[in-house]
Amino acid sequence: MTSNDEVPGPASPRVRVRRKADRGSYDPALVRQILDEALMCRVAFADGGQPYVLPTLHTRVGDLLYFHGSQRNRMLERMLGEPICVEATVVDSLVLGRSVMENSMNYRSVVVLGAAHEVLERQEKLEAMHALVERIAPGRIPELRPLTDAELNSTRVLAVPLTECSAKVRTGPPMDRAGDYDLDVWAGEVPLRVSATTLVPDPQLKPGIEPQPALVEWRRDGL
Predict the structure, then answer these.
(1) At a CB cut-off of 8 Å and minimum separation 6, what does 26 contact?
(2) Which of 72, 74, 104, 147 has the fewest Cβ atoms surrounding its Cβ within 10 A?
(3) pTM for the whole thing?
(4) Tens digit of pLDDT for each residue in 4-63?
(5) To the nearest 10°, the Cα dihedral for 79, 162, 20, 220?
(6) 30-45: string of b/e by CB count within 10 Å (b at 16+)?
(7) Which one-letter DSSP state was computed for residue 80?
(8) CA–CA distance from 133 to each of 34, 72, 113, 166 (Å)?
(9) Which among 216, 17, 20 is positioned nearest to 106, based on CA atoms?
């Protein structure tokens, strides 16, 4: 994190946080951290004048956000060279207040604006694909069958630079009205965590193959 006298401002007015501006941040390190921890993101794009928002997997390498899919993927096709918006959120806890108005969530979110370009260089495509697997299941790449040229050629990889982006974070207890603190209602935070439960083997898994301990102990904030 940067010091108070080095806090970066928004890259453009388009990503300035307006509502609850004190929760906004333009710190690149915070933006990267949230994107790395969010399991999925949502991409907003336009197709024939109709806006769409679709969930998808992503990965970050340096200051580039990568997406991949089939060469025929409509979303990736419409993202190329066109204005898009990417949003990712990590929910940390439920925030329960004493009135209907004061029930909320603690969260960390990122919004990225920009345009995507296609990754055509083979090594960069390969590294982006590996980075996605590594982000979801660290340490798994060495035991997997390598990508074939046919698989790599049938996959489209796009990159969006993290140039124009912002983060927004809510932390802390509910913000009840002063007169509500005497009410006989439990209030506080309910922390949430995404973690592995009982693993379900593939029905066609060969006998005697056990999962890596990291998979058994997997949790979101361990990524």
Answers:
(1) 7, 8, 9, 10, 11, 15, 165, 166, 167
(2) 72
(3) 0.90
(4) 557 788 888 999 999 989 899 999 999 999 999 999 999 999 998 999 999 999 999 999
(5) 90
(6) bbbbbbebbeebbbbb
(7) B
(8) 17, 22, 25, 26
(9) 20
